[in-house]
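Example (one chain per record):
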Amino acid sequence: MKKLLILGVGAQGSTVAKRMDEEPNVSEIICADYDEKAVNELCKLLKKGTPLKIDATKVLNIVKAAEGVDLIVNALPMAFGRIVLEAALKAKTNYQDFAAADTPDIDWVEGIKQMLTETSEKFKAIGKTALISTGSAPGIICVAARYAMRKLDSCETINMYVWEGVKAKRFLPFWWSPEVAYADMSDDAFPFINGEIVASKPFELPVYKKFKHDDRVIKHVEHAHDETVLMGLNSEKFFKGVKNVYFKYGGYGIEFAESLYKMGMLSEEAVELDEQRVIPRKLALKLTPPAPKYQDEIKEILDEGLLDDSGAMLVEAIGMKDGKKVRVETYVNSLGCVDAFEKSGLSGETYFTGQGGSLFTKLFVNDKITQKGLISSDMMEYDQVDYFLAEAAKLDITLDTNVIEI
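Predicted structure:
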């Protein structure tokens, strides 16, 4: 029987808690957050939940909360990543997060390299596992890319496309954290090109993509995400020697943010305004509505009616199979916003990401994770991929794969 500590009970953390409450191998779920009301309300819905108010800015607070737990699920903002990793090491327990942690005073790519080497060795030394980047993207999309490798003898290029096409009648550019969105959209992206991780400015290298279920051609651009760095670093062992990996993002939020970026509104450099110093990104965040996370908020938006409830996630893996060049197209199918709300009370975005995280947690609690050290979601073995996808299908998350000779 496993005891879990879930740090952060927003949409992602609460989804994991609810899913793990159904697991026979879980005995207790400590739901911890600074928001005492949120943890109390969540635990009212759980059979195995224990509420805990916590200040997660202090490592020792987390270590104390983690006494006797088998896994810490970090559903806090990325800035907490290193704190929670350190706490997991001190508590000598397993660790999971939704995206690779930021590393203070270290370049982002170097920080990921450090996690996969130095931090990994520290977890190996205590006989535990840290599993990073386990949401939808990164996360489910990485499992889809691993699945596609079975169809190839060698791989040349992996293209990942995420199109978020849900549009409300009210002004709501993002169904996920605007703070994270603006940070990602103003940071350099790091595609893997010709065997090297290279820096690319936001919104560069546009690709115009048409998906099989929609007639529209959607603009996708470079976007700062874990996948390209992780798959580039793991190219030889897990991706058949891939030389090029791209992550492209498109949709209404991207279109909106690109204009802000070009006019300097996502900059953190202060500007003079009416004899005051103003940071443009802070002003943009102040004026951007937060993503809806409570059921009554989401219901109100859906009751107003959506202008669009579209989207797609596609992995294209190009390489050789039996002496022929092929393209393996793998679509990841999930529920739209309306259907996700009817099923779970969540938006499509939070359903997809939260359920993705819960599936990786399920691997842990059912002893399917045997690797020690720090691993990323793109490093799943094929038997783990099979288990993951079988459980995902029960949640209406499926793959549709087609191999095309080119």
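Caption: The chain is about 40% helix and 30% strand.
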